[in-house]
Amino acid sequence: MQTLSKMPPASSAGLSPDNYTFLQQYLYRESGIVIDCGKSYLLESRLLPIIKAENLSTINDLCRLLRATAPPALKTKVIESLTTNETLFFRDSNVFDALEKSVLPQLIEAKNDIKRINIWSAAASTGQEAYSLAILLAERGLTGWSIQVLGTDLNQQVLDRAAQGRYLQIEVNRGLPAKYLVKHFTRVGLDWQLSPTIRSMVKFRQLDLRASMRGMAPFDLVFCRNVLIYFDVDTKKKILAEIRSTMRSGSLLVLGAAETTLNLDDNYVRVPHGAAAFYRLP
Ligand SMILES: C[S@@+](CC[C@H](N)C(=O)[O-])C[C@H]1O[C@@H](n2cnc3c(N)ncnc32)[C@H](O)[C@@H]1O
Q1: Domain holding 214: CATH number?
Q2: Is the Cβ atom of 151 under 6 angstroms away from ligand 1?
Q3: Count of domains in the chain?
Q4: What residue owns the CA closest to ligand 1's atom 13?
Q5: How many angstroms separate the Cα of 118 from the Cα of each of 98, 146, 223?
Q6: The pTM is what?
Q7: Could you tell me if 10 and 111 lie in one domain?
Q8: Cα 228 to averaged position of ligand 1 atoms, centre (Å)
Q9: One pLDDT digit (tens) per residue for the chain, 282 residues
Q10: Structural domain that includes position 70
Q11: At 185, is the secondary structure helix, strand, or coil?
Q12: Which of 40, 122, 192, 268 has its Cβ near the most Cβ atoms within 10 Å?
């Protein structure tokens, strides 16, 4: 891990330099996420609810507990609190425009003989990405086809929410075209519930992206967006290689706008589709 060798800031309010290093290493070991120096505020604000719930006085008390015999549930809560789960429906219009206009039509044509499409939303968070893909495919009216979208994440808490397919008004306001809200959601109290049809196309399960992906279904399309940015170079390389093992010739990988395979894995070929870049396995 490259950044851990840097010294933590000398004056981190509350959190001691020793415990700062401990939390950096702890998070890296459990998730692969690299927290740079100078992020005391982030650690403290994210862990505050746990500190309160455990009746602890300070973040240093929490570190003491984690260093000793903290129950596994507490360890999980700490890691889950430190993952960034920001996501939204149809995130990055360049990608979804390309999917709608060229990538999905080409994929459907290529799969017309077997009528089966497998998609993986790795780092799915609360599910908006996986459901956006399912909605786009449902819109194609592919009667008689088997369409499966798998959503995975390290964080079980966000996956539980994803599996419910129920979203707040503020969440459907972000990115979801009104025509899809009207067609695929129903109002439940103040929330919006996705239709059983769309939900039945998507399954969620926990997966650490650093784990071996052997045995996962060959995917035609893999979305691994806005998660590689949290890892160091070695971890990114390992994950990109593992993802390759779940793809077949012609499958496409989609990364976040700030992510690339360049200098990490030469086996992917960058294919521009409109303003978006896809990475194809030759
Ligand atoms: C910023 S969200 C990205 C969500 C979605 N892909 C998007 O672009 O909108 C990053 C997700 O990566 C997950 N994550 C972090 N480390 C992970 C790991 N080692 N394995 C699997 N998922 C991880 C987090 O829990 C979080 O939900």
Answers
A1: 3.40.50.150
A2: no
A3: 2
A4: 123
A5: 18, 8, 11
A6: 0.94
A7: no
A8: 8
A9: 544 445 444 334 489 999 999 999 999 999 999 999 999 999 999 999 999 999 999 999 999 999 988 789 999 999 999 999 999 999 999 999 999 999 999 999 999 999 999 999 999 999 999 999 999 999 999 999 999 999 999 999 999 999 999 999 999 999 999 999 999 999 999 999 999 999 999 999 999 999 999 999 899 999 999 999 999 999 999 999 999 999 999 999 999 999 999 999 999 999 999 999 999 999
A10: 3-82
A11: strand
A12: 122
